[in-house]
UniProtKB/TrEMBL annotation:
The FAD-binding domain, residue ranges: 5-340
SUPFAM superfamilies: FAD/NAD(P)-binding domain (SSF51905)
Protein's recorded name: FAD-dependent oxidoreductase
Cofactor(s) annotated in UniProt: FAD
Native source species: Saccharopolyspora thermophila
Keywords of the record: FAD, Flavoprotein
Length: 544
């Protein structure tokens, strides 16, 4: 290697490609290596939920992904042959009121093309064989390819090399977890059925489960629990799969062919830390969970979105490396929750006791009738409810507990607080996120009712707290005078017709919020007393 690599990403699956794209669009050079020589033709992870579509939108590939994929708008839960409840994804304060079914090779193809557009490339057939550390503490890797062996010293090493991560093991990071009780069969099939092709169906039958998900073209993805051992795909011909369908689904499904059959058991787990010095874990190298909820690709891309902008700031010298501690502090609890929920969903779907199953079904059906399922499940499954209450600065004990409690209180009050996702509100002529910069933070402030436009002292204080290169959007009703805000090309007044943005953020006339590059709120406070805003930019290295 002619010169030291700033960032090396090992693994060119969706997570590795996405974090490389995030770094490149922030101006940070990155090298990506992949052990495989060809992209897998298998569909693998196929469900992309709305929050992940937002990430793909920021990367500039959501429109084509949607064109290649199949929209997924609803879900139905069945038990013992009867529908228990249903939900839809249409009201999420996101431009994406649907999920997407897209084979993983298509997702990887779009991300790799974007990587190349940004000036990067994937070096295929290059395997990371060893990891050690230099005398200065930098990661040193041995890369093996058909061209020979290369010793490379890097500033930062991102492990996206899957559940059996070589880098995770070499870094001495344990993966805490357990082997799931059940074996699973996954089959991509062609079949005749009256199931609608815009929804996912979960069929619970005694202590077993069957998932049926439509795929682009005329295929379906079937996932089913089958005993307690890892199934051998060779022992699962179409006829045997058909018997499972006949037993568990009240809606007829008639198989014609199986394009791909796989058998597996899931060792659910989460790495004990996502960062060790200059080694960072992401995607399946950091967390593995049950297929329940179809969160695999989604969790990995959330890792990429969270890590990319932080590492870019550190690499550019704009922030201290301690900022990367917040990657572990934010993403590990979020991934841990995903693992726990997937585990509980599987356990809840495979109850052995008939009485327990009856109680479960009663709870689900009652919650569905009372609207609880529609209020809770879509935001949770879609990813838009995920938040990062730990914040960017280190916290533990009572302080961390207080932050988490505040996050819960904000959620109950419908008030997005620090660490919450910024709602992408529909405006008269577009969407709120369209007003935000492609990279970097932005400050949103409010004025108007309850505040005279000539009272600019608060804006003066905010102006002093915000770095000069950070844009500020001041929302108010139509007709607000532009000369009421500081004379700066980065400040502008935006009409909030009908107060849609104000209501979505429960903002008052003196509210100011910082939106991070990943579209989460970095701080929430007051324009007149912008201590929280100033603290945010001090943490990430901004200079007012």
């Amino acid at each position: 290697m002619a010169e030291q690599t700033r960032v090396l990403v090992v693994g060119a699956g969706p997570t590795g490609l996405a974090v490389a794209c995030e770094l490149l669009r922030a101006g940070v050079p990155v090298r990506v290596v992949e052990a495989g020589t060809e992209r897998s033709p298998r569909s693998k992870g196929i469900a992309i939920w709305p929050r992940t579509l937002e990430i793909l939108h920021d990367l500039g590939i959501a429109e084509e992904a949607t064109a290649r994929g199949l929209p997924l708008r609803k879900g139905t839960l069945w038990s013992q042959g009867q529908p228990l409840t249903t939900f839809d994804l249409t009201d999420l304060r996101s431009r994406f009121g649907w999920g997407l079914v897209l084979p993983q090779y298509e997702t990887e193809s779009l991300l790799e093309r974007r990587l190349v557009e940004l000036g990067g490339k994937v070096e295929k057939g290059v395997r990371c064989a060893e990891l050690s550390w230099s005398a200065s503490g930098l990661p040193r890797v041995e890369l093996v390819s058909s061209a020979g062996t290369e010793q490379a010293e890097v500033d930062w090493l991102i492990a996206c090399d899957g559940p059996g991560s070589t880098i995770r093991a070499a870094a001495g990071i344990d993966m805490a977890g357990e082997l799931e009780r059940y074996g699973w069969v996954l089959a991509d099939v062609r079949m005749d059925t009256e199931l609608p092709r815009d929804g996912v169906n979960w069929f619970l039958h005694r202590d077993a489960v069957l998932h049926a998900l439509p795929m682009p073209g005329d295929q379906w993805r079937l996932t089913m629990t089958v005993g307690r051992e890892r199934p051998d795909p060779a022992q699962w011909p179409v006829e045997r799969i058909q018997r499972i369908l006949d037993e568990r689904s009240p809606v007829p499904m008639r198989l014609s062919t199986a394009e791909w059959v796989s058998g597996f058991r899931v060792r659910q787990g989460i790495a004990r830390q996502f960062r060790r010095g200059r080694v960072l874990l992401a995607g399946d190298a950091a967390h593995v969970h049950s297929p329940a909820g179809a969160q695999g690709v989604n969790a990995g891309l959330q890792d990429a979105a969270n890590l990319g902008w932080k590492l870019a700031l550190v690499c550019r010298g704009d922030a201290s490396p301690t900022l990367l501690d917040s990657y572990d502090a934010e993403r590990r609890p979020a991934a841990s929750l995903t693992v726990r929920l997937a585990n509980r969903a599987t356990r809840g779907a495979t109850l052995a006791s008939a009485a327990a199953r009856a109680g479960r079904d009663l709870i689900w059906s009652t919650a569905g009738r009372r609207g609880v399922v529609q209020r809770v499940v879509p935001p949770a499954v879609s990813g838009v409810l995920q938040s990062y209450p730990a914040g960017l600065t280190a916290a533990s004990g009572p302080l961390l507990a207080a932050r988490r409690l505040r996050s819960v209180v904000d959620l109950v009050r419908g008030r997005p607080g620090t660490g919450a996702r910024l709602p992408d509100v529909r405006l008269v002529d577009g969407w709120l996120w369209d007003l935000l910069p492609a990279t970097g933070p932005v400050v949103l402030a409010w004025a108007g009712r309850g505040r005279a436009w000539d009272d600019v002292d608060g804006f003066t204080a905010l102006h002093r707290a915000v770095p000069r290169d950070v844009p500020v959007l001041v929302f108010d009703s139509p007709g607000a005078p532009a000369d009421a805000i500081p004379d700066s090309p980065r400040w502008r007044v935006v009409a909030d017709f009908g107060g849609r943005v104000r209501r979505a953020l429960a903002a008052g006339p003196d509210t100011a919020v910082v939106v991070r590059p990943d579209r989460y709120l970095g701080a929430r406070g007051s324009s007149a007393s912008p201590g929280a805003v100033r603290s945010y930019f001090k943490t990430v290295g901004g200079t007012p």
